[in-house]
Every structure is written in structure tokens, then in C-alpha cells.
């Protein structure tokens, strides 16, 4: 009992002779989503014709801001990437025709970024970071007609995970504009360019290529809510 009374006395004494000092340190929780445009690089157009494809991404993140100028962000992101290419299909009589094949690649990834802030309530910012991704599934499909030259055409929609690497690594640069609705609540718009450093295809086929990598431009809108961190320090004596 005496120990409990002593502890309570110490706590109350510290509280009575201390004060809360607000800091710029804030922990944010946020959500951003938007569209992305992915495009392959390092392929020979003589052997393959790969074109950019639009997809989408959703990112749940936390952001630690130790000061007004600097912030560090990490999260969990779902991204739909891919590309398109010209492919040859045929009807039931083996009559061939060319059309566009779509490739959809779904990744779950962990993006990590460091950012620098230029403003306060209206805050332009820039940043750099890395991204670690795992391939969830790969899909090849085409929007084919039911008939070609009066002969039936079979639908084309297949899983193709075996054709792609399971792991993806990239670096990124980003820039955005943030507007504080309240001291600890902000909306923002952001553009981010992922520069892929890992190969995306399995194998070394000359047509597919062994050096093909993926770039992806993200355009996102987001909301983040902050939890300010305050320090309790002893009351200065004069």
C-alpha cells in the first residue's frame, strides 16, 4: 500500500510541475488510390510489339513525420499493371486474324518513401523510395468477336503466372501537393514514377527477352489523418 501511494505521489508531482510541449512530430494514417500507366522497356521491337496499358492502384499507408520538413512513409499497395501486344488468333476453320491481346499483372507491394516538404497548410513535396512487390496473378485475354468470316471464334482468357517473375523490385521518385483541411487532416494529389530494376519475364527466350523491365506512372488522390505527438518535459525553473 505504501508503494502504491508513493508511485501516485511521484506521478502527480511530475504532472503538477511539468507541461506539455507540442512538437512537429506526427504519425499519419492514410489512403490513396488512382490510375497507373505501365510500360515495358529494353525489348527489341523487331521481335515484339509491347504497348503501354492503363491500370489502377490502391495504397494504405502510415507516415511518420519527425519534423515539418521531413517525412517517412510505408504501406501496403495493390497495383494492377500490364501491357498490350498484337497477337494472332483463328476461327474454327483455322482462318487467322490479328487483334490486341491484353496482359493484366496484379501485384501486392510494400512501397517505402522519404519525402521533403516545402510548405505548411499548402504543401508541395517531393520524395524518393523503393518498392518490393509480389505477383499475385497474371492473366492474358483478348476481346474477340464470336465469329470471324462466319466461323466461330473461341474466347481467349487464360492464367499465365508461369511466364512472369514472382518478385518485383523498383525505385521511385514522386511529387505532390498537399492541402491541410485541419491541422492534422490533409488531402493530396501525387504523381509517382516507378523505375523497375528486376526482370519481369521468366526464361531467356529471344522474343520475350531476358532484360525486359517495367516502368509505371501513378497518378493518385489521397487523404491522411495525423496523430500529433507531444512531449512532457519538466517545468523550467528560473
Would you kindly provide a written description of the structure presented here, covering whatever features stand out?
The chain is mainly beta and 238 residues long. The protein has one domain: Beta Barrel (Porin), CATH 2.40.160. It is 6% helix and 68% strand. The strands form two sheets. The chain has an eight-stranded antiparallel beta barrel. Strands 7-8 form a two-stranded antiparallel ribbon. A hairpin with a 2-residue loop joins strand 7 and strand 8. The protein is elongated and about 75 Å long. The protein starts with a helix and ends with a strand.
Percent helix:
under 10%
Distance between the termini: 36 Å
Task: Note the overall shape.
Answer: elongated
Uncertain segments of ≥5 residues (pLDDT<50)? 7-23
Structural class designation = mainly beta
What is the radius of gyration?
A: 26 Å
Query: Would you state the CATH class?
Result: Mainly Beta
How many β-strands, per DSSP? 12
CATH architecture: Beta Barrel
Roughly what fraction of the amino acids lie in strands?
over 45%
Tally of separate helices: 1
- Mean pLDDT across all amino acids: 86
Order of helices and strands: HEEEEEEEEEEEE
Strand order of the largest sheet: 1-3-4-5-6-10-11-12
Topology-level CATH name: Porin
